[in-house]
Amino acid sequence: MQLTVLIGVLLLLTWAGFAIGRQRAHAVSGRNSRNLHSLPAYYGYYVMVWCGIPAFLTVLLWLVLESSIITSLVVSALPPDAQSLPPSRLSLLLNDVRNLAAGGATSATASPEVQAAAEHYRSLKATSFAAMAVVCVTLLIAGIAFGRRYIHPQLRARNLVERTIMVFLIAASTIAVLTTIGIVLSLIFEAMRFFRMVSPIEFLFGLEWSPQIAMRADQVASAGSFGAVPIFAGTALISAIAMLVAVPIGLLSAIYMAEYAAPRFRAVAKPVLEILAGIPTVVYGFFAALVVAPFLRDGGHSIGLTISSESALAAGLVMGIMIIPFVSSLSDDVITAVPRSMREGSYGLGATQSETIRRVVLPAALPGIVGSVLLAVSRAIGETMIVVMAAGLTARLTANPFEAVTTVTVQIVTLLVGDQEFDSPKTLAAFALGLVLFIITLGLNVIALRVVQKYREKYD
Amino acid sequence: MTESILQDRTGRNTADRVQAGLKRRYAAERRFRIYGLISILTAMGFLAALLTSIAGNGYGAFLQTHVRLDILFSKADLDPGGTGDPAVLRQGDYDALIKDALAHRFPDVTSRADKRKLNGMISASAGFDLAQMVADEPEIVGTTQRIWLPATGDIDVFVKGNVSEKVPETERRIKDVEIGWVKALQSTGDLELKFNTRFFTSGDSRNPEVAGIWGAVVGSLFTLIITLALAFPLGVMAAVYLEEFAPKNRWTDLVEVNINNLAAVPSIVFGLLGLAVFLNFFHLPRSAPLVGGMVLALITLPTIIIASRAALKAVPPSIREAALGVGASRMQTVTHHVLPLAMPGMLTGTIIGMAHALGETAPLLMIGMVAFIVDIPTSPLDPATVLPVQVYLWADSAERAFVERTSAAILVLIAFLICMNLLAIILRKRFERRW
What we know:
heterodimer, A: 460 residues, mainly alpha, MetI-like fold, two-stranded antiparallel sheet, 76% helix, B: 435 residues, 3 domains, three-stranded antiparallel beta sheet, 19 helices, 3 strands, 65% helix
């Protein structure tokens, strides 16, 4: 709340800076803007650059650094026996302190030390906020004064302002790169910690996956084992089922839509298929668990098959439905991109329409189709909610689609939802799985783009 | 000479050979066409099955079984001192009032087990409602009021006809004696299906009959506001730089490849990024819409950049040349002329990106937005959940009454998505320009 007020004040002051700058430009030009290098407003922006950017950067930096600095100060003020606690206990204690300082309830009745620490925490927090407010407002006013002094008719205000904007534009465009770097670094960093506890060979080639770590030494199955092959196999099985559904239906729909459908039919059918792509995956997951899985189980039962209610078939089937529009819309684009002249050449030789499609259009569009299928595979592998809700949890090495299998994404979710300790291999295994998932989907994506680029026929 | 070309060894000429195969080829043609039609119809059939099953399951949740009881707000129980002090009133045993009213309505129920069943017909949260009523209007203490109270989920499911009486008693959750009470109440008009306003106004609950989606809707709203505030300016700025100013070099190529690849990274990986960087490194609060919004902003950023670049590309170069020709700087050309013309396209892309963000679930599971939260969040820093995660949470509950609420929540989610997409379509149609 206080912060909102402060930011409001800062914004108001920045706007005042703009007005002052413009006013000053008017004054130094002798009320004749022709004497100025730039339009008067640019002098206003120029002052805004001087006052606003430092102040708001300070606020941002302060907010990022504040909590860790205050925490370390509170810890150093704690009694020595509390300071020597193991990190996990210490963080619990600090949580209590923070809760108490925020006026909330604590896990236990607070001891005097905790209460003192909370008081300390609260006072530090108040001091920090006051200091931030003072520093920022001072910076802002200093910026206005500074910028105002520089204004004279020959000042190239527009160029300076535009250069500043350009810096922001470039910074925005690097966010994407920073995101990738962030993903790669965080996955690799946590996965490295995992591989220090479990060897990569065991992870990649082990056949046993049971990540439960014992709480007590005498528990049954106390040693977790982290062989991920059953998970990879399960992912492959479900994705394969999905592709068996999606590729024929998607491709044939695309062909019909591009080659046969009357414009009116196309106008209806294309949006309907796109609706399939717009439905949230959690809805598909619910549909799979509520309707498709029981339907398959009962259907299988009536013809004497035992189909698990969390079968790979149900999850794969529904995932296939979800992927149909990805295959069909991408394939539709590449099929319509094949030039008319090629079709007409084929008709002229006496081929029927389906012969033309199979012998001329599809071979010409093949790279694009392969690319779209690869993209669809990467989507199937990375899909989470359908399998979380409809597929199983136990890692089983099987090729039987009627049994329950688990996938990489299901394991990531089950390992990370709920209580976490960031020093147990159980939690870190999720990051190792995430790394594998990232590498595979990235690889598929790169290959797909290469296939499309390399083998694309150029017709012009 | 010509005959030798046209005739094969058996003496037929080409026309005959074509004739002979024609029937087969036309049949193949028809088959191929039908395969295409069948596959489109299959896809549409799947969509229809999905939507009808969810709508069929979900519409019931908009109604809720209520029971009318004569509740005596006895002064002796609630306010023995007669002070009217709100603190004393809040301490009262309101569940006992309901039990008394039920005992009064069905005086012949005496056995302990039956009494427990009878009291179990009214939602466990009904006592809070009465407490709230008394807090709002202390004057009603000492009077008898006819009040509609929500029935429990099991009764609700039975009244809506989702459990058959023909099922053996041991296999259903509602027993014969309870069915008898329901019928008795129905015969006097004291049990009715009423519109379930609570579903739209309250937060999550363990009791399906009082669980609502408002908490999740507010959480979604906060999350989307954060996403929009981050992703739209950053996306547009990045697109403007890449499309209008960037020199063609290794670095911009790298940025472009990066953006395309990010668009194909599974969303759960972004969740892992959020967990490792935002929560563990920057120590931002868990389960907060702030963090959810930041993660979703990173996910939608590539979509917005790609759509914005397409919109900028569609602005013809003549506009830029004209502006430059009358002395505008490149920055002025972009901000005064190109951006306004490209804005409808950018907004369309952004709305579609936001619709995706609204349906996104997996990354939010990673950053802890799956907690069971009853309170309605009041700021982006409060723990919250979002609509699709609420669907996921309810879908996990075993109770039949939650299936209905899950489907209803999905209907609400889909309604929001349809609105957003319609807005995008209208925007595109309204402002689309052909140059």
